[in-house]
Amino acid sequence: MAMNIRRTTRALGALRPMAARSAVNARQYSTSEPDLKTTLKEAIPAKRELLKKVKAHSNKVIGEVKVENTLGGMRGLKAMVWEGSVLDANEGIRFHGRTIKDCQKELPKGKTGTEMLPEAMFWLLLTGQVPSTNQVRQFSRELAEQAQLPAFVSKMLDDFPTDLHPMTQFAMAVSALNYTSKFAKAYENGLNKADYWEPTFDDSISLLAKLPTIAAKIYQNSYRGGGALPAEVDLGQDWSYNFAAMLGKGGKENENFQDLLRLYLALHGDHEGGNVSAHATHLVGSALSDPFLSYSAVLALARPRFPTVVGPSTPNPNEIQIVSAQFSGSGCPQGSVSTTISPDRTVITFGFDRFQTYIGPGIPFAERTKNCNLHLNLRYPSGFQFAVVESTYHGFAQLDQGVSGTFFSTYFFSQDAGATTTTSTSIEGGGIWKDGQVYTKQDVIPTAALIWAQCGASGILNVNNRINLVSRVPSAYGSIT
């Protein structure tokens, strides 16, 4: 489960669990099997031939357009071609016909951990083929070799104000990489349309390789006091491991977090191509912009949430600190939670190992409900009002038909325990949840609903979480973490 809390000031930057272990062992992989670019190149002629056959049916009607479709942003229309993935209300997502469970079983894994690699999912999405372990190892190495940022981009990131919104920094850095674009240079020199794909592919791989480095550098500068990243890119490790290591989560003790990244990034690699981010990329790309500029347009969609400050002047946000943190509950017993507070004391990281619920024949009744209460001691100057603006939780649910689960969260300050805000998210088992799915619970709390604003003092912010499972079928099983 991952949780990210943001507030109306910079007092509490993030709160997200990160769990346990990973190992570094640099080895080179050589293979006589074709690499990704060669595999894609070999598949292109057949796809072009298929496109010609489809065009022969250009006059065929595939649906109707209603007024509600035009008013609703084309929702529900079959209006584009997309092969990578298909979303179904009952079956969930399939990647080239494969369920999540199929992908977890078939796609190659890293040298450590147990989850499929995003590199393998990327290969599957582009080619429709499951790569071999050697092919993925070589692709991981290719990404690692291109992970270093140009010096001017690194300097630009270091020169940004530390309180500039991270997504603004991200968009600007990706846009600046346009300077290195092979497509832009080739197009300027008169590139044949049939060859557009090749420099576009090269730029896309370069961008993919550099995204973790950019994100880690922004995190380091904004929340860890700047300086060198905790680790350099390991040419013998996979994309997600290197990202975790650059965030300070390398090593075997953080293997669970590295697996969480692998699973999360693999599953979110494609969602039928119909979301607003994918559309933005395609729109900008259709104007023959290079992949760097096209992707930076997507990042611009993640608009900053600006802090709310009261009083005649703006206090220094650096004076706002997380003094300490405690936890309690059946889902987070002593020894099962790790905490890390950033050097500037504005970001706290929790790692949960026991916040898990289970239900089914033979499983003790006590396993159906777990609670985990977080208590954050905040110290801040006068002139600020505090409110939880948004909380995001990520976890994994696997529920048979007849099993339902509910995740409750209650927010309040100890100094005003009567003013609470409670949210809940429920999941009904069966369908896509039978084989297991990553879920997201997102709370948006009105700032007026949770404010404790005694000036120049400390306050205890409590976030009480509870997961509860219920079954209407005695033989059914379920779990939520």
From TrEMBL:
GO terms for biological process: carbohydrate metabolic process; tricarboxylic acid cycle. The keyword Membrane does not apply. Pathway: Organic acid metabolism; propanoate degradation. It catalyses: oxaloacetate + acetyl-CoA + H2O = citrate + CoA + H(+); propanoyl-CoA + oxaloacetate + H2O = (2S,3S)-2-methylcitrate + CoA + H(+). GO terms for molecular function: 2-methylcitrate synthase activity; citrate synthase activity. The keyword Transit peptide applies. Keywords: Transferase, Transit peptide. SUPFAM superfamilies: Citrate synthase. Gene3D superfamilies: Citrate Synthase, domain 1. One of its GO terms (cellular component) is mitochondrial matrix. InterPro entries: Citrate_synth-like_lrg_a-sub, Citrate_synthase, Citrate_synthase_sf, DUF4360. It comes from the Eukaryota. PANTHER family: CITRATE SYNTHASE (PTHR11739), CITRATE SYNTHASE 3, MITOCHONDRIAL (PTHR11739:SF15). Belongs to the citrate synthase family. This is Citrate synthase. It comes from Verticillium longisporum.
